[in-house]
Amino acid sequence: MNPSYNRKPTLFRQILSAVVMALAGILVFTLGWTLGINLLYAGKVLPGVSLNGRSLAGMDVTAAQLAISSSYDFPQSGHILLQDGEKSWLVTPDQLGVYLDTVGSAQNAMAVGRNGSVIKRLEDLTQAAFYGYEISPIFIFNQKVALQYLTDLSTTIDQPIKEAGISVQNAQVVISQGQPGRILDLAASLNAISAQLTQMRDGIVPLVIQENQPKMLDVSKQGELVKSILSQPLTLILPDAGDKDPSWQIQPVDLARLLAFTEVQNGANTDLQIGINKTLAAAYLHSLEGEIDQSAENARFIFNDDTHLLNLIQSAVQGRALQIDPSVEAINQAIANGEHSATLAVTVTEPQIKDTTTGAELGITQLVSSYTSYFRGSSDERVHNIQIAAARFHGLLIAPGATLSMSDVIGNISLDNGYAEALIIVGDQTIAGVGGGVCQVSTTLFRTAFFGGYEIDERNAHAYRVGYYEQTASGHDQKLAGLDATVFVPIVDFKFTNDTPYWLLMETYVSPTNDTLTWKFYSTSDGRSVNWSSTGPTDIIEPADPLYRENPDLPTGKIKQVEYAADGATVVVNRTVTRGGQVLYNDNFTTKYEPWQAVFEYGPGTENIPSSSSGN
User: Fold this and answer.
1) Is beta strand 234-237 parallel, antiparallel or unpaired with respect to 341-343?
2) 372: which residues sit within 8 A by CB, 6+ positions away?
3) What is the DSSP letter of 480?
4) Which residues of 415-433 are buried (b: 16+ CB within 10 A; e: fewer)?
5) Quick check: 230 and 173 in contact, CB under 8 A?
6) In a 10 Å sphere around its CB, with 0-12 CB exposed, 13-18 middle and 19+ buried, how is residue 461 labelled?
7) Is the backbone of residue 504 left (phi > 0), alpha (psi -120 to 50) or beta?
8) Which residues on neighbouring strands pair with residue 596, listed in sequence order?
9) What residue spans of 342-487 are helical by DSSP H?
10) C-beta of residue 16 within 8 angstroms of C-beta of residue 100
11) 240: which residues sit within 8 A by CB, 6+ positions away?
């Protein structure tokens, strides 16, 4: 055996044994030291442990809590500045729900060197013994407190969005400017506060604000436009208006009610458009139609018997009809432009007969029919009504083939149209009514058309024989019975047709002095002739005895006759119209008149009233 080989293992074993012995000694020492420290500081913070620079060594949990509480006051003394633009609010962390957890922090201090693996404990003990062990405080952040603080703060910050607007009261304009809406974003602001508090130092926290802009922020320009619009009336005029044409003014107070404010989109912006309420404007314009609308009227002439030419007596009138929708648009445009007048839209209809039309063009060359009736004994009111009604027909032209409706020409028989109250026949009595005497006109027209050979389309007789219509130049003629015609607008009418190829011109002349109404037809004769005959009154029925009745409006002793007796009768009138041997019309006009009782009225207390015929 080699002696040197035997020596090497012995040396290795010696070194290994020494190392093991040393390590064992260190371990025994460390364990002993650790055990000793823990036994010595049982229930107390180990040496070297501190918080915020203050040693907690040797303190139990309660003492450590007191020490920690007195050494760290950031929740009460810290400063957090919350900002919203130029506004700010200085708060302490504890106002936002931050507080120091002394119990948890003390327990952390107590856990140094006592928790974890053996190696971890040794490391902590070594760190604490030789270098010191600084623990971090534990803070609790109650976000509910911060959220409540922000919620309370939002009542100061939040403001509703407000649209700019214009209101008008009694033509006074009030302009309201817009205001952005502002809302404190609670969640975002809470996150910003949390981030700052995590740093555990003073700081500034900009609050998160959500702003919503109104659609319209400023309407000053539009408000000034409204003020200008209402500074004076809006005048409505007719197109091509002359000095005598009417115009209408809408006063500012009324105009204000017609204004409308409409939001319109202008790219990305919203504008306030000033205009008119089209429904209200249309209703207003409809109220003007009676003043604006007019039918086209032919020129009126009289025939000059000397020159055989037409003399103009009334110029032609253009027809005019108000166009509602275009007129509303015209008003709307004027309002939008701040103008104080608007031209209405109308449809114009030209009359068929102009002022320059000649008799030769119309075929009016001669007198073709004429008739004169008499009205002796008429009251002034009745004569007045005859003049008013007859004037409606003076110079009137009837086209070839056209039918004349007397009711259409006369129109509404009313006091407003110039008629007076006079006696009229209504039902079975004669009473005072507006327009008495118009039937003198209809009867005269009927006879002029009758004797002229024109086609009679509608004729209605009176209920009883009226003395006026049987008058002649020298007295009375019963042959005229059955040739009367009554008109009661718009129920009862008289109509005839100009069944010739020529225009027909009518002229009427009333002579209160001579008690006459003369009607003339001018045209061109087509060669027709008229033959007529009348049975005169037949089947005579005498009226009842006079009736006397009391009228409380009459004075005592006054007796007044209000109805005049007339025999009932039947009259048949035949007319044959021929031309060139051809019969154009073979007419039969049968009239049955009722017997009419004389009626007298007397005042209360009147004596000597015939008792045999008196009544109520």
Assistant:
1) parallel
2) 444, 473, 516, 517, 518, 519
3) G
4) eeeebbbbbbbeeeebeee
5) yes
6) buried
7) beta
8) 566
9) 359-362, 380-391, 406-410, 438-452
10) no
11) none
pLDDT of residue 435: 52
- How, if at all, do strands 172-176 and 181-184 pair? unpaired
Residue at token pair 């000053």: 220
Q: At 310, which amino acid appears?
A: L
Return the structure tokens found at 195.
């981030």
CA neighbor of 365 nearest in space, from 499, 524, 519, 520: 524
Residue given tokens 């302009």 in the structure block: 175
DSSP state of 469: G
The DSSP bridge pattern shows strands 559-563 and 341-343 to be unpaired
Characterize the bridge pairing of strands 346-349 and 397-398. Answer: unpaired
Q: Is the bond leading into 490 cis (omega within 30 degrees of zero)?
A: yes
Starting at the edge strand found earlier in the chain, the sheet holding 87-91 runs: 87-91, 80-84, 203-206
Residue 451 C-alpha from the chain's centroid: 58
Residue 69 CA to residue 34 CA, distance in Å, equals 29
List CB contacts of 187: < 8 A, sequence separation 6 or more. Answer: none
Q: DSSP strand E in 403-527: where?
A: 403-405, 421-426, 429-434, 455-458, 495-497, 504-511, 516-523
CA distance 585 to 485: 19
E-state strands within 299-343: 300-303, 310-314, 319-322, 341-343
Beta-bridge partner residues of 586: 576
Please check whether residue 371 is in contact with residue 451, taking contact to mean a CB–CB distance below 8 angstroms: yes
Paired with 302 in beta bridges are 311
In this predicted structure, the answer to whether residue 425 has a pLDDT above a threshold of 60 is: no
| 69/103 Cα distance (integer angstroms) | 10
DSSP secondary structure code for residue 597 in this structure: -
More confident residue, 515 or 615: 515
Tell me the sheet residues that pair with 134: 50
Helix/strand/coil for 149: helix
Q: What is the pLDDT of residues 426-451, one digit of tens each?
A: 444 444 444 578 899 999 999 999 99
What are the phi and psi torsion angles at 168 (to 5°)?
-130, 125
DSSP string spanning 105-128? HHHHHHHTTTSS-HHHHHHHHHII
Task: Give, for 591, the enclosing helix (H) or strand (E).
Answer: strand 582-593
Both structure tokens of 204: 């500034």
Instruction: Tell which wins on pLDDT, 198 or 92.
Output: 92
Residues 6+ apart with CB under 8 A from 90: 79, 80, 81, 82
The two structure tokens encoding residue 322: 């108000």
Kindly give the pairing relationship between strand 203-206 and strand 80-84.
parallel
Query: In the predicted model, is pLDDT for residue 58 greater than 90?
Result: no
